[in-house]
Amino acid sequence: MHAGACRKSQHAAVERHDAIVEAIHEYIKELHPGAEIAKGNAENSGTGNYIVDLISNNTGIISKYDVGVTHAALLSNAPAAGHTKEYTSDTSARAYEQEKRLKYRHADGSHMDVTPLIMLSTGKPGPILRAELEQLNTSSRVEGKEAARRRLQQRFVRACAIHDARSRIYSAANLVPA
Q1: Do 24 and 17 meet the contact criterion of CB atoms below 8 Å apart?
Q2: Cβ contacts of residue 11 below 8 Å, gap of 6+?
Q3: Is residue 7 part of a domain?
Q4: Domain residues for 104?
């Protein structure tokens, strides 16, 4: 059994997710101090049965984000045999981004305005997350943007490292190979 599938280590995955959400929250606040940003809940998500992770209102532009983490080499996201599409670490992130997009649909099938922000378990942001971070960075007028970006990357790596270490501890304690 893989450590990530072990129920005893599931709270470590939730902790990693929450640390990534918090890192993005802090990054937005740092780069756009005037933006209103909140954690999603049943009252403010406006997405039916689903709750988004973050909602940002930056000068009247409202953005809703759903954060997720996937493994870079998740085989279920690899191209099927015979396909010529090259498998990269972004392949897994793109597949999970699509899964998140499909989650947020109106009754008529149209997509809700929720942006999936996917992080690989290695600490590497997925394609949409990278683009959103770049847009936040470009549109910011504050000093020290590069330092903020470095702090964000450190928070991402730390969040993933904490989960990995805790998963290994749980695996060893339960004699489950990691």
Answers
A1: no
A2: none
A3: yes
A4: 3-173
* HEC secondary structure over 73-105: CCHHHCCCCCCCCCCCHHHHHHHHHHHHHHHCE
* 178 in a structural domain: no
Longest pairwise C-alpha distance within the chain: 52
In a domain, 165, yes or no: yes
Q: Is the pLDDT of residue 160 over 50?
A: yes
Mean pLDDT on 39-54:
83
CATH number for the domain that contains residue 167: 3.40.91
Q: Percent of the chain beyond pLDDT 90?
A: 34
pTM listed for this prediction = 0.78
Q: Could you tell me which residues come within 8 angstroms of residue 167 by beta carbon, excluding any fewer than 6 positions away?
A: 3, 4, 6, 9, 12, 13, 178
Domain count, the chain: 1
Nearest-5° Cα angle at 150, 145 to 153: 125
pLDDT score recorded for residue 8? 54
- Give the residue-averaged pLDDT of 114-121: 91
